[in-house]
């Protein structure tokens, strides 16, 4: 009986810890018990692993079947015309070289948005049929490079914008395929003295096979070097991460069994003042290398300079 | 981000990034078990991804990626605890002790499979609470407002749901292993 009471008390404390509602004294007491007893540690893992696993598991277990609700998906982008755009959220992952940029990536302060100056500098929907995209990495700024071809929309794929889309080349399912672009920031006026600059990239991705899980990726990287100097750095594992000034990325994984539709992804990167070149890398691949093939497409890419009144992450830096 | 050899196959960075995406659920679950705050866990996951990318060339393709990545995640969790010391969290000693006794990635996988079945067995109400808490990331207060409950009642119900799931998983695993 005593053991049951102890176990139940321990469960209560563990649950309070998982909910973030332990008092300081309780945290100390629980810490002592964990430090001293392997049994308590096992008990911790049994309960805490549920806390760790339940989010993903609920999603894969089909929420619609279990609760009748839709899951927290990226919003699907409907076919649109003209310039009316729908801002969408994404259930992806943001990566930043500096922790402050990670915070910013998730929590762009709302009150500063109204004072932002936004200027679209790239809009690409692959409408030209005779453009080649040779090379995996740009050798110059202002052109798309990569493993893609421009194709007309057809009965399998309707474009997200215009009448053509980019199709990622069929490759081994064990690999990502990329489309990449380099921006030379010297081509644009610098932000004002009291402004900080970020670059926002939006792109639409599509997978033809809804029964297989696909992964889409936006990665952005800022370098101080001029555009022609970035490629050898990108190619050299030894120096790449020493040279990159800032690095942000988002991954989105589609869920098998959902209707094929364009997925709109967005990522933003804070531009350090010394930045000269910005790499935009858009990737697509299959999650299961043994699954059935899916054709992967890219369309309607928009890149904008966003100048804000002062350092975006000044309030969020930790 | 990925480094690459010109016009060649994937680089180690690209390969480990793809492996990371494939095994992200297990890595995320491991981190969240040690780092209950969802936002802290997200930060640690991001830091882990970056470090995995940086150390890509030291990963031997064909070996256990999840174990390697969780090893890195473990260090990132500890770093995070040191950087964000709060009064109501576990001591560093306790966290170190927990990481030393962490279940293997394979055992996480087993538990994850059992969890899926156990969630399906839950009554609608606790399942809804779990969905709000974990998928929608609603706070106890938000859930209480939405469901006409008190915040405390929400916390108690969530705790019960987790305990029910734990017991169900343990039972499932015992049955599977014929214990």
Name a few traits of the molecule.
A: 318 residues, alpha+beta, Jelly Rolls, 6-stranded antiparallel beta sheet, 29% strand, B: 179 residues, mainly alpha, Rna Polymerase Sigma Factor, Chain: A, Arc Repressor Mutant, subunit A, 2 domains, disordered N terminus
- The SSE order of chain B reads HHHHHHHHH
Proportion in β-strands of chain A: 25-35%
Largest interface: A-B, 86 and 79 residues
By DSSP, the count of extended strands of chain A is: 12
- The name of the CATH topology of the largest domain in chain A is Jelly Rolls
Helix share bin of chain B: over 70%
Strand content of chain B: under 5%
- Principal-axis shape of chain A equals globular
| Percent range of helical residues of chain A | 25-40%
What does this molecule look like?
The complex is a heterodimer of chains A (318) and B (179). By secondary structure, chain A is of the alpha+beta class. Chain A has two domains: 2-67; 95-308, Galactose-binding domain-like (Jelly Rolls, Sandwich), CATH 2.60.120.260. Chain A is 26% helix and 29% strand. Chain A has eight helices and twelve strands. Chain A has helices spanning 2-18, 24-36, 38-60, 63-67, 99-106, 110-113, 230-234, 237-243; strands spanning 95-96, 117-124, 144-146, 148-152, 164-168, 177-184, 196-207, 214-223, 246-253, 263-271, 277-286, 296-308. Chain A has a six-stranded antiparallel beta sheet with strand order 1-9-8-11-6-3. In chain A, strands 2, 4, 5, 7, 10 and 12 form a six-stranded antiparallel beta sheet that branches. The radius of gyration of chain A is 23 Å and the shape is globular. Chain B has 179 residues and is mostly helical. Chain B folds into two domains: 1-102, Rna Polymerase Sigma Factor, Chain: A; 103-179, Winged helix-like DNA-binding domain superfamily/Winged helix DNA-binding domain (Arc Repressor Mutant, subunit A). Chain B is built from nine helices and no strands. Chain B has helices spanning 12-22, 24-34, 38-54, 65-83, 92-100, 105-121, 124-135, 140-147, 151-177. The radius of gyration of chain B is 19 Å and the shape is globular. The N and C termini of chain B lie far apart (47 Å). Classes of the chains: A alpha+beta (318), B mainly alpha (179). At the A-B interface, helix 1, helix 2, helix 3, helix 4 and strand 1 of A face helix 1, helix 2, helix 3, helix 5 and helix 6 of B.
């Amino acid at each position: 009986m005593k053991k049951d009471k102890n176990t139940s008390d321990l469960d209560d404390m563990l649950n309070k810890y998982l909910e973030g509602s332990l008092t300081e004294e309780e945290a100390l007491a629980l810490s002592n018990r964990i430090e001293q007893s392997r049994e308590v540690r096992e008990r911790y893992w049994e309960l805490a692993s549920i806390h760790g696993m339940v989010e993903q598991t609920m999603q894969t277990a089909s929420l619609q079947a279990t609760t009748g609700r839709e899951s927290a998906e990226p919003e699907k982008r409907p076919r649109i015309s003209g310039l009316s755009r729908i801002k969408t959220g994404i259930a992806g992952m943001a990566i930043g070289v500096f922790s402050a940029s990670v915070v910013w990536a998730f929590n762009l302060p709302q009150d500063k948005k109204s004072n932002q100056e936004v200027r679209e500098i790239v809009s690409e929907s692959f409408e030209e049929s005779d453009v080649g995209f040779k090379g995996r990495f740009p050798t110059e700024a202002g052109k798309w490079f990569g493993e893609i071809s421009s194709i007309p929309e057809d009965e399998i794929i309707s474009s997200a914008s215009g009448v053509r889309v980019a199709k990622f080349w069929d490759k081994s399912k064990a690999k990502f395929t990329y489309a990449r672009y380099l921006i030379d920031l010297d081509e644009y006026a610098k932000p004002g003295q009291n402004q900080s600059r970020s670059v926002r990239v939006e792109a639409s991705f599509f997978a033809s096979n809804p029964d297989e899980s696909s992964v889409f990726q936006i990665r952005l990287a800022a370098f101080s070097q001029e555009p022609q100097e970035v490629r050898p750095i990108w190619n050299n594992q030894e120096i790449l991460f020493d040279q990159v000034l800032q690095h942000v990325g988002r991954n989105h994984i589609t869920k098998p069994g959902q209707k094929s539709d364009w997925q709109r992804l967005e990522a933003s990167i804070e531009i350090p003042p010394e930045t000269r070149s910005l790499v935009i890398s858009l990737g697509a691949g299959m999650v299961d290398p043994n699954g059935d093939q899916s054709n992967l497409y890219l369309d309607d890419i928009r890149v904008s300079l966003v100048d804000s009144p002062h350092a975006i992450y000044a309030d969020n830096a930790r | 981000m990925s480094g690459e050899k010109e016009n060649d196959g994937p680089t180690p960075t690209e390969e480990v990034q793809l492996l990371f995406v494939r095994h992200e659920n297990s890595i995320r679950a491991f981190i969240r078990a040690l780092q209950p705050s969802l936002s802290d866990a997200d930060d640690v996951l991001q830091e882990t991804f970056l470090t995995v990318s940086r150390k890509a060339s030291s990963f031997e393709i064909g070996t256990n990626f999840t174990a390697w990545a969780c090893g890195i995640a473990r260090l990132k969790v500890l770093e995070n605890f040191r950087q964000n010391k709060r009064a109501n969290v576990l001591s560093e000693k306790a966290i170190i002790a927990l990481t030393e006794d962490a279940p293997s990635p394979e055992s996480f996988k087993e538990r994850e499979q059992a969890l899926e079945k156990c969630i399906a067995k839950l009554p609608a109400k606790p399942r809804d609470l779990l969905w709000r808490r974990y998928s929608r990331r609603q706070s106890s207060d938000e859930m209480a407002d939405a469901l006409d409950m008190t915040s405390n009642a929400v916390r108690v119900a969530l705790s019960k749901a987790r305990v029910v799931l734990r017991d169900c998983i343990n039972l499932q695993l015992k049955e599977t292993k014929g214990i």
